[in-house]
Amino acid sequence: MGQSQHVNIFSLFRNHQQELQLCNISVCLSGGINDFRIIGGADSTVKEARLRVKFAIRAADFRFPSGKIIVNLSPVAQLKQGSTFDLPIALAILAASKQIELPSVCLSYGELSLSGQVNDTGDLLSYRQYEADKQQIKIILDYIYKLADFPKIKCYLPADMKEEYWQNIKNCDYFSISQLKDLHNLSAVIANNGNNASLARSSINLPDYQQEEIDSRQRSMLLSLERQAQIALDNYVELKNMDFSKRSLHIALAGGHPLLFIGSNGSGKTELLHSAVYFLENELKQVWQTYNRELRDLEQILLDVGCLSLPGQLWNGQRQSGKLLKFKSGLLFLSELNKFRSKSLLCLEEFWQRNLTYTGDNNFTDTSAVPSDVHLQPFCQLLCDMNPCPCGNLFEPWLAACHCSEYRVKQFNQHIGGALWDRLSMICLVRREELPVLNILPPNSLAEAVDDKTALNKSKHDKILLAEKMRDNIQKCRNFQRERNYSLCHRYCLNAQLNLAELSKIQVLTTEMQDFINTMHYARHLSFRRLLYLRALALTLADFQGRECNIQNFIEAAAYIEIPEEIQRECA
After folding, report:
1. Which residues form the domain of 339?
2. What pLDDT is recorded for position 195?
3. What residues have CB less than 8 Å from 381, skipping those under 6 apart?
4. Where would I find the Magnesium chelatase ChlI-like catalytic domain in this sequence (predicted)?
5. Spatial distance between the Cα atoms of 214 and 26, rounded to a whole number of angstroms
């Protein structure tokens, strides 16, 4: 059942005789399928306000209500044109959804931009009809004053309004609004009864009901993050015989390197990737504290994308994804990478160029705006997995023979282009877990069963302690990299975010290291980007071990950089 708003919001428009006329705006919210309609003699220019109002409300850190939204403009017989009704429609929707408090009768007009900025409409008031319009405004305000039950009428107008029309008018308090975000302080300004007040968000606290809503959402997100971290720890402890894969994950998290696991179904690669939530739980909480005013859900810092949930769409002239567009900083999981559609992978490549690589344009946030105890730049840690072939046994012929032809394997991996392969700095093969030998003989006594359970719990407790120790080592390594890179390159960043010039300041190459890089370039045909990843990964291995970088780190890093021959042959 619809819930009608209890505020009479009036606005101004020009009728067919070019005279100012009063318009009453009412909003009805109801459940059901999302639908937003504007009725009541609105032409195409007024109906376009749906998109402006929707994106402006979201940009102003408000919640756009779900369900059916019907906006009625009265009188219906008169044709309405222009963008005059943007601000009053937004006020009516926010008041109907109980996000702001408005007086019972108020007047407003103004145009909204997609970023939430409020602009004056030049076609509403002009100096050519100054005298006639000013006299008409007085008549309109006198009519509204008869409907109000308080001494003065509240008017919410753009900051760049023509003040000549509103000065020296009795029974009127007008508030200038430059941004829709200023409405967060609307109730406090109304309580002050200030005339010609400018809404300053930083000087006035939020209303109590809005602060309670924000705190409740943040507590829910934090509990959800802690719950996912506990599940990730349990899955990490249960995985066995995956020492090499676990070490690969630790190195990738220590340096922020993109990681790809290739393995068959049931090998545990997806569960192992999701255990990164546990190892980076403290840093994700810091990100959550930094962006807590902007976050609406946990997917903005911890996003798990399936192969069918990343549709490409056109946004501001660039192909982007709706989920990636809202992603702030944190962990990005891509499951079954080779099953993504080509359009989705194009979105991913453009997102990669913007967020995962540093181009030297200094397009990162200023660290002075971040709290002193949190030096975090927006950064996305990419973790993905895939099967090598349709049956998944391409790398495990000992388990089951792979009957997939070269053509089927090529078709299975055809969506992944060379540019995407070139940006995966770590590629690791995950072997399927061997099944333990089951003891089918019953225990001789109840005491033996209790001892076996105690030994199993003790072993699990030891694994949890090792996981906690590894989490501390990864966090110390990331903090050490940020402080060192800031002292040498003036950026709080990880090794994966360093460009070639910054990496050369930190890593001094010996003759042996340079010869190894040349060999990998000419003999293994590695691109310059992969050679950069090789140096950054070798530096991370040295930092993870707590020593200076040497040739052994380069040799170990080369094992992660190279693409498997079977995959490389099929994708060539």
Report:
1. 216-435+445-571
2. 42
3. 252, 253, 256, 258, 276, 280, 330, 331, 332
4. 243-277, 320-433
5. 27
The larger pLDDT score, comparing residue 225 to residue 435, is at 225
Nearest 5°: the CA angle 218, 221, 224 is: 150
| 210 pLDDT above the threshold of 60 | no
Three-state SS at 388: coil
Number of domains into which the chain is organized: 2
Sequence letter at residue 331: L
Contact, 157 vs 109, CB < 8 A? yes
Closest CA to 161 of 142, 175, 171, 172: 175
Instruction: Tell me: do 173 and 279 sit in the same domain.
Output: no
Q: Which of 366, 324, 323, 320 is nearest to 343 (CA)?
A: 320
pLDDT 10s digits, 499-528: 888 898 898 889 999 999 998 888 888 888
Convert 183-247 into a string of H (helix), E (strand) and C (coil): HHHHHHHHHHCCCCEECCHHHCCCCHHHHHHHHHHHHHHHHHHHHHHHHHHHHHHHCCCCHHHHH
pLDDT at 457: 57
**Cis peptide upstream of residue 75 (ω within 30 degrees of 0):** yes
CB 73 within 8 A of CB 80: yes
In tens, the pLDDT along 334-366 reads: 888 877 776 667 666 666 655 544 333 333 333
Residue 368 lies in a domain: yes
- For residue 123, the 8-state DSSP code is T
At residue 249, the pLDDT reads: 92
Q: Is residue 172 included in any domain, yes or no?
A: yes
Instruction: Sheet containing 330-334: give its strands across.
Output: 302-305, 330-334, 380-386, 259-263, 426-430
Where residue 109 sits, what CATH number does that domain have?
3.30.230.10
CB count within 10 Å of CB 273 equals 26
pLDDT digits (tens, 9 = 90+) for 375-431: 456 678 888 888 888 887 777 766 677 778 777 877 777 777 666 777 788 888 887
Residue 452 carries which side chain, given as an amino acid letter? D
Residues 38, 74 contacting (CB under 8 angstroms): no
Same-domain check for residues 408 and 430: yes
The answer on 164 and 228 residing in a single domain is: no
Q: Is 546 left (phi over 0), alpha (psi -120 to 50) or beta?
A: left
Of the candidates 348, 183, 154, the one whose C-alpha atom is nearest the C-alpha of residue 260 is 348
For helices 446-489 and 281-290, angle between their N-to-C axes, nearest 10 degrees: 50
CB 93 within 8 A of CB 65: yes
- The torsion angles phi and psi of 562, rounded to 5 degrees, stand at -70, 140
Q: What is the mean pLDDT of residues 39-56?
A: 87
Tell me which of 63 and 297 has the higher pLDDT: 63
- Please spell the DSSP secondary structure of 476-493, one letter per residue: HHHHHHHHHHHHHHS---
Return the SS3 of 312: strand
pLDDT above 90: percentage of residues in the chain: 11
Q: What does the mean pLDDT of the chain come to?
A: 75
Largest CA distance in the chain: 104
